[in-house]
Amino acid sequence: MRYIGLDLGSKTLGIATSDITNTIATTYTTLRCEENDYDSFIEPLNNIIKEYNITKIILGLPKNMDNTIGDRANITIEFKKKLEEYFNIEVILEDERLTSVISNNVLIKADVSRKKRKKKVDGIAATIILQSYLDKENNKNER
């Protein structure tokens, strides 16, 4: 029973996986598509879900800084519905504000070139989204 974390962009889907204890998130990959062609992510996700016996999907919700829901968040909510329908797995929306900024800062500190950062930022953002969720869940269970 493992989880995956997803960071949905207009042309990308960053993916992270948890370890078998659902304690640590690790960057898995970043999928690419034509702009807003999210259906193309279904088959690769299906393969990952089967291979890793995924039981829950944590999907980043890009809220506005004032906590309102904008266009990107609405697209994400529609993608959530598609995932739930297709995979019949619980999909949790996790606030992802600033995850891309944090991801870029991590890569800059690691001295990763701008060109390479662009390819890695979504996967790292997915890892931050998933790790944030895992930390909250594990803290709840410790009480």
Topology:
Elements: E1 2-8, E2 12-18, E3 25-32, H1 42-52, E4 54-61, H2 71-87, E5 90-95, H3 99-109, H4 114-142
Parallel strand pairs: 1-4, 4-5
Antiparallel strand pairs: 1-2, 2-3
Helix pairs in contact: 3-4
How does this model look, in words?
- With 143 residues, the chain is an alpha/beta fold.
- It has helices spanning 42-52, 71-87, 99-109, 114-142; strands spanning 2-8, 12-18, 25-32, 54-61, 90-95.
- Strand 4 (54-61), helix 2 and strand 5 form a beta-alpha-beta unit.
- Helix 3 crosses helix 4 (114-142).
- The longest helix has 29 residues, at 114-142.
- The model has no long low-confidence stretch (mean pLDDT 88).
What's the helix count?
A: 4
- Tell me the name of the CATH class: Alpha Beta
Low-pLDDT stretches = none
What is the 3D form? globular
On the 0 to 100 scale, the average pLDDT is 88
CATH architecture verdict: 2-Layer Sandwich
Main beta sheet: 5 strands, mixed
How large is the share of residues in beta strands? 25-35%
End-to-end Cα distance, whole Å, is: 22 Å
Query: What's the CATH H-level homologous superfamily?
Result: YqgF/RNase H-like domain
Q: Biggest sheet, strands in spatial order?
A: 3-2-1-4-5
CA gyration radius, whole angstroms: 14 Å
String of helices and strands = EEEHEHEHH
User: What percent of residues adopt helix (DSSP H or I)?
Assistant: 40-55%
CATH fold group = Nucleotidyltransferase, domain 5
**Structural domains: how many:** 1
What structural category do the secondary elements indicate?
Answer: alpha/beta
What's the count of strands?
5
